[in-house]
Amino acid sequence: MANIISDETIEYVGILAKLELSEEEKEQAKKDMGEMLDYIDQLNALDTSSVEPMSHVFSVHNVFREDVVTNEDDRENILKNAPEEQEGSFVVPKTVE
Amino acid sequence: MSKQYETVIGLEVHVELATKTKIFCGCSTEFGGAPNTHTCPVCTGMPGSLPVLNKQVVEYAIAVGLATNCKITQNGKFDRKNYFYPDNPQNYQISQLYLPICRDGHVDIETEEGGKKAIGIHEIHMEEDAGKLVHDEWSGCSLVDFNRSGVPLIEIVSEPDMRSAEEVIAYLEKLRLLIQYLGASDCKLNEGSMRADVNLSVREVGAKKFGTRTEMKNLNSFKAIARAIESEKERQIDLLESGEEVIQETRRWDDVKEYSYAMRSKEDAQDYRYFPDPDLVPIIISDEMIAEIKAKQPEFRDEKMERYEKEYGIPAYDISVITSSKHMADLFEQTVAICNSPKKVSNWLMVETMRLLKEHDMEPEQINFSPENLAKLISLTEANTINSTVAKEVFEQVFAHDIDPEKYVEEHGLKTVNDEGALRSTIEAIVAANPKSVEDYKAGKKKAIGFLVGQTMKEMKGKADPAMVNKILIELLEA
Q1: For residue B249, which residues of chain A lie inside 8 Å, CB to CB?
Q2: Where are the domains of chain B?
Q3: Which of B27, B128, B416, B467 has its CA 20 to 30 A from that of B477?
Q4: Residue numbers of the domain that contains A16
Q5: Nearest alpha-carbon partner for B394 in B416, B425, B365
Q6: What's the number of domains chain A is made of?
Q7: Do A94 and B252 touch (CB under 8 A)?
Q8: Do B141 and A93 touch (CB under 8 A)?
Q9: Does domain B420-478 bear CATH number 1.10.10.410?
């Protein structure tokens, strides 16, 4: 494996992804990430200078909607997805910037 | 202070677009609905839901880009900006990092010295708004309303080309008017449909390098923006003068306390790990589509001002007031088309209309009367059917309820009494009833006539022609 992921990197990625990893999981993640980066290196070895960058795997573009209201009030159903509900709102732990 | 400092300012302006529906789903964007009544699986970030782009958002964004001299990106896409916050249900915001829809534009502002200065526009990109958090003090919880989630925004990022609060406000005014004339947004700072974040740094005059900048948020009025700029400029200069460093951070302005504080930074939030959104396909904008949008652009304020001067010959000040709102300018043109008295129409708009707007805390966009009724009122005054005092009363009714002035004057018996005989006998009675004032007048206190005019107008319920009242009174008093 050419790419070695440091403890600091896996710690940082864990924070960004809001994941708490056990020591065991950290080691596994380091190994997986290293292998992924090795694969990227393999792709980078190809000469793509004459290839147009691709921004999507499907050859479709311009899928638009007209600006017309199609959705009615469906709060009752939407709130079924909430962990907790109060006054028609989703309840989350208090979050203040 | 020994050193001379220069302030360098760039702006990030978010504008809420005036579409009927959200950017990626068919939910209404209407303001003020009960919490979560305008939501669906897409705008609440449910797994498996598929966003589909609202075409009107693209058209508005292009229209704003053309109005600000931008290049339109003809091969664009959307990216995901990743961060965790409860108002953002997907844990990413759909935005544009790599290929924003517009780039490299500028608008010209008028400077204090009366010259012109170009403010560069780095880019304009399309993105979605977040939901709204309400903090419940009792339960220690936060409540989330996703009605705003997915409302379309454009973010207009300027170059760091501004050097003072005056230039910042001139730039914002310019953007606001361009966008209002396009009908792309109502651009209300106090209601959040236009939001400006100020990036500011200071450097010694003559320095080539920019200083470290801070970003200021929560600016809800032009006045707050001006105050925040002054305060932040002073704060940074004080730091530098005392040998300290400016820290790059986001600060929140408190306009009541008139100071700012560093916001608790979201944990490592600056690392947004953008990547192309695989749910949304590329946007290819053809030359034809750009030409079509260009052809539909309205006459903007600068062109309108020039034309008004030539076509209507009203003073420059009148023109600047009237064209400061597209709605008012439309109303002006429509009314003049009926009654052909540009200066009179302009006076009603500038004086009485502006006074009533201020009194009712309304915006010019909320003017609700028709050009027909204003034109009728002007015709009534031109024909001397009503005097100016009555006209103002009638106008208040036009302003409030868009009444028909002809009918109103008829029904309320407000026509000026032009019957000199009837007026003369009323005045004779008033002169007879007020010997003291007559005596004063005759003794040289010419002002005493004012009281008698007032009494006459009162008796006539304001319907007399004041010039005629004056003339008859003088005749009687000097006889």
Answers
A1: none
A2: 5-290, 299-411, 420-478
A3: B416
A4: 7-44
A5: B416
A6: 1
A7: no
A8: yes
A9: yes
